[in-house]
Design goal:
The structure is a homodimer.
Chain A (H helix, E strand, L loop, with lengths): L1 H24 L6 H8 L3 H4 L6 H24 L5 H18 L1 H11 L9 H23 L8 H21 L10 H12 L13
Helix pairs in contact in A: 1-2, 1-4, 1-6, 4-5, 4-6, 4-7, 5-7, 6-8, 7-8
Chain A binds a DNA duplex (30 and 30 nucleotides) through helix 1 and helix 3.
Chain lengths: ~210, ~210
DNA sequence: GATATTTCCTAATATCATTAGGAAATATGT
DNA sequence: ACATATTTCCTAATGATATTAGGAAATATC
């Protein structure tokens, strides 16, 4: 299996070169020659591994997001309470973004642009990633930890929107600070939107 | 002034053609030939009006966003109370997006990608657009209408993030529904994050 | 050791963005 | 009205770059 092994190595080298260059110079300004040089190949050889530049762009975040999805279950396992799960989700995701800023940059800045994004494997994986949040809000609503009238889909929009917003700004500002800086405060702010109104009084009410 | 008049007309024709094609097919897939044909010109003539394709891309949202900025002051004039201002801001902005979906699409989907975005006039105008929100939250905090410990910058992040998120999804889904559908509910959800905790009790407390 | 397959390369080819150079139309000054 | 300057536009270049052709070198398979 030395053949397929070396094939995997070359493929990985191409992916990593592309990732680096896309994130540094942007998708448009990165040429196939750039990528293949960086990977120590000719342009033509690259086409043995990928159908083209766009295929390459779509492959990178695909790997990252499906790995995220695999990890998420495990991370939330055993955590009790909707708010605690929500906190874990946020801290986990932000950490993952800080650990893989190049992947994050490609997902957040270059993918949405792409006309095929909605038909992508990445898109459906991202949707899955976010659907966990809907479940968490649903649980919170049911247990009375959160508002009885809470709409889980809209709560997810607030949560994901805020998360994506601070991540996008961080990426545009070239990751010059830590995403964790105000995370606690912003989390508490959001939770106030979701939590039942009078936590010190009885939150169980009969219809 | 027939000369400069006709010049303006041609320029506008180019802008509108580009706007339409960029929004329909994306920036990359739209060619200069496409745009100039649509505008009834040769490619070369287009270069009399714009420095190139990227210049064209950046000009379109520049016009839209500076017009928004001019309008905003007037729209908020005479509205009393931070929550009322916030509501007006949201309804105004969402309406503007629905009225100019092509411009919105270019701002939201193609601009962030661009490496020069942060050095753009558009960027500084968008920042100005958002800075109104910070003022509103500051006012709300001072008058006691909102939490005394509210961080106006973070509140803005929640508000803008949520707004941008629902707009981006709407654009990706090809504007097949109305942005106003759940707006009331989502607004109330967010306001719960900002408002003082016990509105029925005294909200003035001494440190 | 011979043959098939994979991996890679050097050169086309094709598709644009952009520029050159100049013609036609329009404005300006007399 | 005429001559000249300026603006607007056009038909080709030119140049960059994604992709493909065709085949050589390396590697695997029998």
């Amino acid at each position: 299996m030395a053949k397929s092994n070396s094939k995997e190595k070359t493929r990985d080298r191409i992916i990593n070169s592309a990732k680096k260059l896309f994130a540094e110079q942007g998708y448009q300004k990165t040429t196939i020659v750039d990528i293949s040089r960086q990977a120590g190949l000719s342009e033509a050889a690259l086409y043995e591994y990928f159908q083209g530049k766009e295929d390459l762009l779509l492959t990178i975040p695909d790997l990252w997001v499906s790995e995220l999805l695999r990890d998420l279950d495990e991370q939330l396992f055993g955590i009790k309470g909707a708010v605690n799960k929500l906190r874990k989700y946020l801290w986990w995701y932000i950490r993952r973004v800080e650990q893989a800023p190049l992947d994050a940059k490609i997902v957040y800045l270059f993918l949405k642009t792409n006309a095929n994004f909605l038909n992508t494997e990445v898109y459906s994986n991202v949707k899955n990633l976010y659907s966990y949040l809907v479940d968490i809000f649903e649980e919170g609503r049911k247990t009375g930890e959160m508002k009885p009238e809470l709409n889980p889909l809209l709560a997810r929009d607030v949560f994901v929107g805020t998360m994506d917003h601070i991540i996008t700004r961080w990426l545009l500002k070239d990751m010059t600070y830590s995403l964790f800086e105000n995370l606690e405060t912003i989390f508490e702010l959001m939770v106030d939107a979701f939590k039942a109104n009078h936590p010190t009084l009885t939150s169980q009410s009969i219809l």
